[in-house]
Amino acid sequence: MTIEYATPYRSRSFIPPQPGKPYFIEKGMGDRAHLFGDLVTVYAGGEQTENTFNFFTVEGPKGDIIPAHVHADTHEVFYITDGAVRLFVEDQEGEQYEKLLTEGDFGFVPKNCAHAYRIERHHSRVVGVAAGPGGTFERFFENLGTPAEELGLPRTPYVPEPEKFGTVPQRFDVRFLPDHQWRTGS
User: Where does the Cupin type-2 domain start and stop, copy by copy (predicted)?
Assistant: First the structure.
């Protein structure tokens, strides 16, 4: 049996709003949001882990690179379970890296490193974990994007209004780098 909770973010969720409570979530039934052409599903966040880490998936079609951004206080993990994702990272000395990650591959982005990714194959899925002294950023997806009740990718991409890019990220340790250039070639 799966229990539903009311949370500060949603009228119904399978994620309890407080820490210290065991729970189980069936595949795909976490808190979902659409952002661009992707479906983001959060399974654990700051509320459950006392702001030590979050756990989420991002599924999407082949598409454009997401905007370059940085997390000042959050380390981020990319683990590919399906498809292929190209990860772009710039370290704090300015050296850029680019790697095509496929099923079973892992990528780590330390805090303060600019990064972005591009889904290279339809039906790709990334498992993400983020942790750091600044807390977690999983509620960023539904605040910049839009909460989704249905399973699956959005019928049409959800592109936020330009002013949301300036306000929402500040609350979630995400700083966009609109003028960032990748010199890695892809």
Answer: 60-119
Structural contact between residues 128 and 58, judged by C-beta atoms closer than 8 angstroms: yes
Q: What's the one-letter identity of residue 110? A: P
By residue count, the chain amounts to 186
Entry pTM:
0.92
Q: What distance in Å separates the CA atoms of residue 69 and residue 55, rounded to the nearest whole number? A: 19
Three-state SS string over the chain comes to CCCCECCCCCCCECCCCCCCCCCCCCCCCCEEEEEECEEEEEEECHHHHCCCEEEEEEEECCCCCCCCEECCCCEEEEEEEECEEEEEEECCCCCEEEEEEECCCEEEECCCCEEEEEECCCCEEEEEEEECCCCCCCCHHHHHCEEECCCCCCCCCECCCCCHHHHHHHHHCCEECCCCCCCCCC
Phi first, then psi: what are they for 87, rounded to 5°? -105, 130
| Residue 1 binned pLDDT confidence (cut-offs 50, 70, 90) | low
